[in-house]
Design a protein that fits this description.
about 325 residues, alpha/beta
């Protein structure tokens, strides 16, 4: 059994794929399995996969005959994974050489179901990285695991835990599937070990699917995903601070759409409807909104610091 299986969904990412695969091939963790899923790429990605993985027994390639989306690709690899833990690296991102070793050592030593590192933003044009502070919630995650609601690629998860609770990616969602997975996982794992110096580099790719937000599909997926999470919190049940933190995050996701001045009116109206639907389901509105306002104030402050640093350093 490999220590860690790494899942890499690939779709038309030839500009970034070689750097991604190189970072995986050079990991200091020797006991490694890498499962790449080619989601019917039409560019040079298949050729890069073949060249990069040839002769390296750690790498496996699954090829789709049609385009099914990143969630289906990740799920196919989850089914095939043999590792004690499983991690995820997007094909336009890369990781530090000791990323997996540090996370695995922390997970094993602490008997943790999850070990989480740090995400840094990488500018491929300038070739530089900087701390993406608005998403660096590690200090909060140390206080409560519910704060781990996004950047799931910066972590590894115990494979047995995911399978026991049926935690997979919702293939109905083309957007919001990432936090949907992160939040569902946090409902079930025992604890998360935080490793601040294990670094995942997120590439600032302007062509990423997450940037395609000028139609109603993203907000439709947000509504569907948020309502599903509310259903799950009611059924488990998830209570107290954990409930409040998840609710605050969901509200923040809807509120973000009200600030997108370029979004069509239909998108804004749909976001308002989704916002109202979530608020109507809140068990303790005052407690939940207090958590949200605290989260929003802190995020705004950290976002301002991030922008100042970016301006100073170019």
């Amino acid at each position: 059994m490999p220590a860690v299986s790494v899942i890499v969904p690939v779709f038309n990412s030839e500009a970034f794929l070689d750097k991604c695969l190189e970072s995986l091939a050079c990991q200091t963790l020797a006991d490694l399995e890498v499962i790449c899923v080619d989601d019917h790429s039409t560019d040079g990605s298949p050729a890069i996969l073949n060249r990069r993985t040839a002769g390296d027994s750690r790498f496996k390639v699954i090829t789709f005959a049609d385009n099914r989306g990143p969630s289906a690709a990740r799920n196919a690899a989850l089914d095939a994974a043999l590792g004690e833990y499983v991690g995820f690296v997007d094909s336009d991102d890369f990781i530090a050489p000791d990323f997996l070793e540090k996370l695995y050592q922390a997970a094993v030593s602490g008997d943790a179901d999850v070990a989480k590192g740090t995400l840094k933003n990488y500018d491929p044009v300038k070739g530089v990285s900087y701390q993406r502070e608005i998403f660096n919630l590690n200090y909060r995650i140390k206080e409560h695991k519910a704060w781990f609601f996004m950047t799931y690629t910066s972590a590894i998860y115990r494979t047995r835990m995911l399978r026991e609770h049926g935690i997979r990616f919702d293939e109905r969602l083309r957007f919001f599937e990432d936090p949907h997975f992160s939040i569902r996982a946090a409902f079930h794992y025992n604890q998360v070990a935080v490793v601040d110096d294990a670094v995942y580099y997120y590439t600032d790719n302007p062509h990423s699917v997450t940037r395609a937000c000028n139609d109603t599909r993203p907000i439709q997926d947000l509504i569907a995903g948020a309502q599903d999470l509310m259903d799950r919190m009611d059924a488990l049940p998830i209570e107290g601070q954990h409930y409040n933190i998840v609710f605050a995050f969901l509200i923040d996701q809807f509120a973000g759409w009200f600030q997108k001045y370029y979004a069509p009116d239909a998108v804004t109206e749909l976001a308002a409807s989704g916002f109202s639907g979530i608020v109507d389901r809140c068990r303790d509105f005052q407690a939940c909104m207090s958590t949200y306002l605290f989260f929003r104030k802190e995020s705004d402050r950290r976002n301002l610091i991030r922008q100042i640093k970016k301006d100073l350093h170019g």
